[in-house]
Every structure is written in C-alpha cells, then in structure tokens.
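YM 10:42: MET23 protein sequence, as discussed on the call
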Amino acid sequence: VPQPQYGLYAWPSAVVLAQYLWFHRAALPGRRVLELGAGVSLPGLVAAKCGAEVTLSDSEELPQCLENCRRSCLMNNLPHVPVIGLTWGRVSPELLSLAPVDIILGSDVFFDPKDFEDILTTVYYLMEKNPHAQFWTTYQVRSADWSIEALLCKWKLKNIHVPLQSFNADKEHLAGSSLPGRHTIEMMIISLANSDGT
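YM 10:58: structure's back
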C-alpha cells in the first residue's frame, strides 16, 4: 500500500505526462486544468507555465503533499496556482465548488487497485460538469492483472491509448531527466463514452 510520503517525489509517469503537455502546449492557454494526486505537481506546473488555468489537488488527508504542491508552485514562480484538498471518491465542499474543467491530469494515480474506482468516480463527477472534459493520465505498468476496463464500462467512460512515440516520450531520458528510465509507462485519455471527444 502506498505511503503518504510517496507523493513527495517525482515518479517516471509525471515526466512522461509533462512531456505530453509540453508537446501539446499550443492547446493549453486558457484551458481549465485540474491535477489529481498532484504530489510534486510536475504536470500541473508545466500546464500552468504553458498558459493553462491550473488547480492542483491532492488528498485532504495528506497535508504534507498539499504543502509540497504549494512549495513547488513557489519554487516555479507560480504563487497564484490554487492548491486544494480533494480525496478521490469523496464528495467535499472543495469538489462541489470547483468550476468545470477542460482537462484533468493524473500521473501514476492508478498505483493501488483499491483506489481505482474512487479515482474514476471523481473523474466522472468532474466530467458531468463538462461532458467534453478529458482525463489525461500516465501510469507505470506494475501488474498485468490490474485493469480499469470493467470500471470504465461501469462509469460509462472510454479510453484511448496514446503511444509514447507520438509525443517523443519513448526514451529513457526526457528533458534532461533519467526518468522514466526503463520503466514501462503507458498513457491514455479517458472521456465520457457518449462524448464526441472534442
């Protein structure tokens, strides 16, 4: 089971998602972006630097991770980026008061299978506010037995696999970082099953 301090480190999936954001940076200005399980917030910070209106979130039960998000914002000259406590699968005043978002980010949030449905429940709620929203997520393959396919069907969501080579992320070193190294990283875009994908 992941320990809270795991949100205090950059993981290989974050670098890959940041690369995807940088590759598509022309589409980000003015887009409303929410990063779930932000931790060190690398993808969210890249989106903010590219002109997106970003909100960072991590579990309200992990104040160290929320403080880490705030420190990352300050270190990157982004003091205006809001940081909020959102616990996956839990309806909270913070979740209810969020304005509709265009893009939801999540790097390595599919870490522990016990959290998979809570993550997708939260994503589905956010997509109900904006049916055209997309969830851009990267994850490290840890077990061939773990799958979200049944949960995607249950929550009426669909996913599109994004090949890493399509955004120059199929390398052991990205942007001067040795992450992702030799880890197997996958990316997908999740949307409502009945949306037109725009």
